[in-house]
Amino acid sequence: MPRVLVPIADDSEEIETSCVTDVLVRAGVEVTVASVMPEGRLQCKMARGLKVVADVPIADCVGKEWDAIALPGGMPGAKHLSECAPLVELLKAQVAANKTLGAVCAAPAIVLAAHGLLPPTATSFPVDAFKSKLAEAGTAWTEARVVVDRSVVTSQGPGTSLQFALKLVERLVSREKAEEIAKALLTQMP
């Protein structure tokens, strides 16, 4: 069974977080939601006020192997993720091992670009500030709702979160499983 880490913080985007975790669990993936908040605080107040309780603090995830790490966006949630040293260590190890790394909305620009973890092409929430951060990192921004380049999967925002999660299922489990879940959720494959 694939294992996926979904890090969260105060002000992470709740639709992106819940879409990714829900779709992955439907696919039979073991999902661990980890809080990056100080002192091991597990409860996070998301971008629109929803309170989410993580499974573990991020410190419990260091030194473990993950088949994928999927980062939600939201601001300043993505900034909190980017500033978390243990998470950045995990992200760098993920890329070095050529394992799947996913980021949606603000996360490609705020987390991945800040730490030199972007591939040659990616997408993010379509605002000039994020497009500029990708360009500064040497990455070409594209309009596609979901972009896969090397082992990195990026997506644009809350409205593309289902397709983003389905692409992760396709990579981690199978195209058939992703199609089955898409049909059950009344949506389309990316």
TrEMBL record:
Q: Which UniProt keywords apply?
A: Repeat
The keyword Repeat is annotated on this UniProt entry: yes
Q: Name one Pfam family in it.
A: DJ-1_PfpI
Annotated DJ-1/PfpI domain ranges read: 3-170
The record's annotation in SUPFAM superfamilies points to: Class I glutamine amidotransferase-like
Q: Give the GO biological process terms.
A: glyoxal metabolic process
Q: Where does the source fall among the domains of life?
A: Eukaryota
Keyword Repeat on this protein? yes
Q: Which GO cellular component terms, listed alphabetically, does the Swiss-Prot or TrEMBL entry include? A: cytoplasm
Which NCBIfam families does the entry link to?
not_thiJ
Name of this protein: DJ-1/PfpI domain-containing protein
The protein's organism comes out as: Strombidinopsis acuminata
